[in-house]
Amino acid sequence: MNTLVSKINSELKRIFVDNGYNETLAFISSSNREELADYQINSCFSIAKELKKNPMEVADNLSSLIKDIQIDGIKAFSFCESCKPGFINLKLNDKVLFLNIRDIITDDNLFINGENILPKDAPKCILLDYGGANVAKPLHVGHLRVAVIGEALKRLYNRLGIKTISDVHLGDFGLQMGLVIEGLKDENKVDNFTTGDLEIIYPKASLRAKGDVNNNVEPDIDFSNRAHETTKKIQDGIEPETSIWKRILKLSIEDLKKRYAELNVFFDYYYGESTVKDIMGPMVDELIKNGIAYESNGAYVIDVKNDTDKKEMPPCIIRKSDGAVLYATSDLATIKYREDNFDADEYVYVVDKRQSLHLEQCFRASKKAQLLKKDKKFYHVAVGTMNGPGGKPFKSRDGGVLKLEVLINDAKEKALKQLIDNNRDLSGIDENDTARKIGIAALKYGDLSNNPTRDYIFDIDKFLSFQGNTGPYILYTLVRIKSIFDKLDNININAVLNIDCDDIIHKIFLKAIRYEEVLLEAYNNYDPSVICKYIYELSNDFNSFYHDHSIINEKDNSKKEIYIIICNVVDRLIRDALSILAIEIPDKM
């Protein structure tokens, strides 16, 4: 990539080589004290150690050589100074910074090129497993995090030029299907049912089979046995149960697609456990035959413990003593299926962190069983929980699991009320659609702004605020910029930039050229919250600039050009970031 930082690093490498310094140490880093400098060089200590010199001596020598570096014929730094005990602080020249900004905003891709950002061994194709929905059951709040985090990671990979394959991995083949079908039979609805019927029947059937000790409800043993028998019939392909199951599957997937689409979440495949039903048995037999799986108390297991393990790692059970398969069997067969049909370079599972042990067992077992064509990376994005007040799992008002549909509708209604109560100008636009975008942005950003592994407190009123680190605050920044564009003629962004800028303008432009660093950090850490942090800080800096500068009424044309370029680059960067986060943007708020 031909960005400013890469150009500076190239010049640094030349200086290091000419002076006998280790060229692998020739790079600048973002300053951890932005009030002192834009960038710093921290490698003087390593150089001094290698050459047996004083770090300050190295820093003084390097700073004297670095201060005159030129980029495209312009002096790169307005400030270059060594400081104790051996650092070099650097501040970019405004003009060279501006020229880099101009390059960014005149490039359709914002000068982001994944091939040059990513390490050379980066995967070309990543398969993502996220969503985890269950057939015949409504999405609930527990499905929100894995869906929005998985979608953001998928879009991040695509933004960096990595091909992705996404699979929701449905729960579609277990006892729940037997329960639902038997429930439909008892209510004479096997020939005519809706998704609403399925949502009502499943909890009733589950309660009927299990009973409820707290409410003195005895389990219906006969119904439970029938459900188990029906589940076995589905797994064996026996009619008419299999046909009923297929109709349930089709109806549920159609409904799930609509629900996920409301969150701007889309999958390439709606495969489930049933996809690999014919693989599991032969796979287990082969593992036993090859001695990879062995008998233990009547069951068959695979040892997955490593000598370096500090915690207990139980064996992975792939067949129960009664011959039944388990989730681990299904997950191993799924890995085999994906490897045979997709051959991705890396597998990323966005799944509740409480599944960490199970997934680690499966990942290790798949490698021991040689289900992969070559050694590949598995990564579990161990997602934390969304909790209600007091840190307890988020529940509905009656204490049950809250449907995601109810949560989304609540967010929309509150967003609309907030718009009306604050007398927002929504003339000429669809109020309900605007409220939808704001409400869903509040939900998604409120989630994504937290590190994926962290548990967090869900607070819809806080998330809907137009102030602070929230989705509506970010959206309002873009709406504000659009209102400026609507009142101005086009500005020549190719004009030569000769003015000095104040601290806030310099800060905004500096942050703008760091966008690729942010995307790389989010990629390396499997963490979309890095992007949220960036656009919040960028929005904050822009709004500070907006309050201190008269943009529309500025008389000095050269200044006005700079101001409009600021609006342009901030708008484009935030819009690009929100497209990665899969958040829609309203025209007015």
Structure in words:
This protein is an alpha/beta fold. Among the domains are: 4-92, Arginyl tRNA synthetase N-terminal domain (Gyrase A, domain 2); 404-580, Isoleucyl-tRNA Synthetase, Domain 1, CATH 1.10.730. Helix content is 51%, strand content 11%. The protein is built from 21 helices and 15 strands. It has a four-stranded antiparallel β-sheet with strand order 1-2-6-5. A hairpin with a 2-residue loop joins β9 and β10 (299-302).
Layout: helices, strands, pairs:
Layout: H1 4-18, E1 29-30, E2 39-41, H2 44-51, H3 55-66, E3 70-71, E4 74-75, E5 77-83, E6 87-92, H4 94-105, H5 114-117, E7 125-130, H6 142-159, E8 163-167, H7 175-186, H8 195-210, H9 221-236, H10 241-262, H11 277-289, E9 294-296, E10 299-302, E11 316-319, H12 327-341, E12 346-352, H13 356-368, E13 377-383, E14 386-387, H14 404-421, H15 431-448, E15 456-457, H16 460-463, H17 471-486, H18 503-513, H19 515-525, H20 529-548, H21 557-580
Parallel strand pairs: 7-8, 7-12, 12-13, 14-15
Antiparallel strand pairs: 1-2, 2-6, 3-4, 5-6, 9-10, 10-11
Helix pairs in contact: 2-3, 4-18, 4-21, 7-8, 7-9, 8-9, 11-12, 12-13, 14-15, 17-21, 18-20, 18-21, 19-20, 20-21
What distance lies between the first and last C-alpha atoms, to the nearest angstrom? 38 Å
Quaternary state of the chains: single chain
How much beta, percentage-wise? 5-15%
Q: Order of strands side by side in the largest beta sheet?
A: 1-2-6-5
CATH topology assignment of the domain at 404-580:
Isoleucyl-tRNA Synthetase, Domain 1
